[in-house]
Design a protein that fits this description.
Keywords: ATP-binding, Membrane, Nucleotide-binding, Transmembrane, Transmembrane helix. The chain crosses the membrane at residues 31-57, 114-137, 143-162, 255-275, 281-301. It holds the Pfam family ABC_tran. It is a multi-pass membrane protein. With 550 residues, the chain is of the alpha/beta class. It folds into three domains: 8-188 and 237-328, ABC transporter transmembrane region fold; 189-231; 333-548, P-loop containing nucleotide triphosphate hydrolases (Rossmann fold), CATH 3.40.50. 59% of the residues lie in helices and 13% in strands. The chain is built from 17 helices and 17 strands. The strands form six sheets. It has a five-stranded parallel beta sheet, with helices on both faces. Strand 4 and strand 5 (356-361) form a beta hairpin. The chain starts with 7 loop residues before the first helix and ends with a strand. 32% of the residues are buried. The structure holds adenosine-5'-triphosphate. Residues 350-353, 372-378 line the site of adenosine-5'-triphosphate. Adenosine-5'-triphosphate is lined by residues 350-353, 372-378.
């Protein structure tokens, strides 16, 4: 999914930062001890200059690693998002809230891996290994204790990493639930007033009726109040999400405390077990190095515990993105239609729709009508290949496998308007459709009142009415010049004059293309080639199966 090259520079700078830090600690410890016993004529300048140079290197590499790391992070986020988009291409997104969540949260988690955990953990491991090696090689007093601390650190990081993986898994579930419930909650915002309004109204009624009527009204009121309170979900709580976040932080800090305790214990052991160190110090200032490194261990090695949590979150995010719920849709190549599209026992999987048997001409307007809920929209989506279907879908007698035919367009009943200019909404794929074609069509559909191609529509722009949205979506589909145009309820919410305009556009388009319309109304101006009636009343039972007579 991510083809960005590894961030070696980020890692290198993080190593330089860590090594400079520990070198300052080692040299300054030695320098302090040396200063106490230095003979006359000892050159203080050289160690002081080295320490100062290391401090500058530490600061510079720290900032540089942040700068390089964050630039790399941004490139990675963009790259992973593109990867996720291509994963979503040709597939139906089942849970939009979760997909948005995955895009926003998980991609950042994945992209941050170099600066969040690879660089810090590698740097600490490198420092630990080098320190143990140098201390053993030069036989520093207490070198063995450094190895003990390294072992303790490795065990602590492994145990905490395992625990962090479990917490990250729970956090993803809690997050998904929270997103879903928030989404449901916000989607119900249009009826929130019913909650207060209904209760308020009930209270008014209750006050009015209280004086004249019996208490039996009060029980009716209670029922209404309870129902009203059910309108708005009450389970939208971020508590579980926060609990998991806090649990992750708590385990990291608990492990850091344990590690700190072990480091102190080792220092105490070293000092109490070897009084000789004090004497050794007089002759070998180097003896102070290991105790100082042990004392400061939580500072230079403690980061590992929060980094390992980031590793766990990364693993969880990678899994969540891989398992994102989508239904793949196969893309089929453009097909010529010479005589007809024929449907045989065609029904939509998982929908309460009847089997359809009909044939449609290669061009002209076909009108699918029928009672609400009988399956008009489902039939159009199944025909377009957006929904899986049973039965046969044939072009000129040749069966078309399941999938989306590339030059067929379905215009949904509730179209999506992008937040952008009208021109962007008409050519979202950047096909460089000439602006004069757009303007002409916009005028023909009666959309030109107050709407220019440059007008910003949708979110933070001009809000469009339901009828305007439908016509923008229709124009968008027509400008793509599909061979088959499937339009769901194009006349809904339009006045007679606008219906007339839309009919003119559709009639003209149908002179050499097939236009299939699902509609409750068939305006007189629409030149209909064929009517397909999906009606419960006309459903007959054949061999125990429902079959729509068309
Ligand atoms: N996403 C869905 N999942 C499962 N069933 C669905 C879904 N959408 C619709 N249905 C069901 O499929 C059946 C057909 O719905 P469809 O929207 O196709 O009817 P319609 O004729 O277009 O209705 P209307 O005229 O009211 O728009 C209905 O019983 C509906 O409840």
């Amino acid at each position: 999914m991510n083809s960005t090259k590894p961030a070696y520079l980020t890692l290198l700078l993080a190593l330089a930062h860590g090594v400079a830090g520990i070198s300052i600690l080692v040299i300054s410890s030695w320098f302090i001890a040396v200063s106490a016993i230095a003979p006359v004529g000892f050159n203080y300048v050289i160690p002081a200059v080295v320490i100062r140079a290391l401090a500058l290197l530490r600061i510079a590499s720290g900032y540089a690693s942040m700068w390089v790391g964050h630039n790399d992070l941004l490139a990675r986020i963009a790259n992973i998002r593109l990867g996720v988009f291509s994963q979503l291409e040709n597939s139906q997104i089942n849970e939009k809230a979760l997909t948005t969540e995955a895009l926003a949260h998980h991609t950042e988690e994945l992209a941050s891996r170099w600066i969040a955990w690879i660089a810090p953990l590698s740097s600490i491991m490198f420092i630990f290994t080098s320190l143990c090696f140098i201390a053993t090689w030069f036989d520093f007093p207490g070198a063995g204790l450094l190895i003990v601390l390294f072992a303790a650190w490795s065990i602590a990081v492994t145990l905490q990493g395992l625990r962090a993986l479990r917490i990250a898994k729970r956090a993803t579930c809690a997050n998904a639930e929270f997103r879903q419930s928030s989404n449901n909650f916000l989607n119900s915002s249009a009826i929130w007033h019913l909650n207060r309004g209904l209760v308020g109204q009930c209270e008014d009624n209750a006050t009015q009726q209280h004086n004249s009527h019996s208490a039996s009204n009060a029980s009716t009121l209670d029922v209404k109040e309870i129902k009203a309170s059910n309108i708005v979900g009450k389970n939208v709580s971020a508590k579980a999400v926060w609990q998991e976040k806090i649990a992750q932080k708590n385990t990291a800090s608990r492990t850091a405390w344990w590690f700190q305790g072990i480091a102190f214990l080792l220092v105490v052991l070293m000092i109490s077990g070897a009084l000789s160190i004090a004497q050794t110090l007089l002759f070998a200032p180097i003896a102070i190095v290991v105790p100082m490194v042990l004392l400061a261990a939580p500072d230079w090695a403690g980061n590992a515990f929060s980094s390992i949590s980031k590793f766990a979150q990364y693993k969880q995010s990678a899994k969540a993105l891989r398992q994102m719920k989508t239904t793949p849709i196969k893309m089929l190549c453009e097909r010529e239609i010479n005589t007809a599209i024929t449907l045989t026992d065609f029904s939509i999987k998982g929908r309460r729709t009847n089997k359809v048997n009909t044939s449609m001409p290669a061009k002209g307007v076909v009108c699918v009508s029928g009672a609400s809920g009988c399956g008009k929209s489902s039939l159009l989506q199944g025909l377009a290949g957006l929904l899986p279907a049973n039965g046969k879908r044939e072009i000129d007698g040749v069966n078309i496998p399941p999938g989306l035919v590339s030059n067929w367009r379905y215009v949904e009943q509730e179209p999506i308007i992008l937040s952008g200019t009208l021109a962007l909404n008409l050519d979202p794929a950047g096909q460089e459709i000439p602006h004069n074609q757009m303007t002409t069509l916009v005028q023909e559909l009666g959309l030109d009142k107050g709407l220019l191609l440059s007008t910003w529509v949708g979110k933070a722009g001009r809000p469009l009415s339901g009828g305007e949205k439908k016509r923008v979506a229709l124009a968008r589909a027509i400008l793509a010049k599909p061979r088959v145009l499937l339009v769901d309820e194009p006349f809904e919410g339009l006045d007679i004059h606008t219906q007339q305009r839309v009919c003119d556009v559709l009639n003209r388009y149908a002179t050499d293309k097939l236009v299939i319309i699902a509609s409750h109304v068939t305006p007189k101006a629409l030149v209909v080639q064929k009517n397909v009636q999906l009606d419960e009343a006309s459903v007959v039972t054949v061999n125990g199966e429902h079959r729509a007579t068309l």
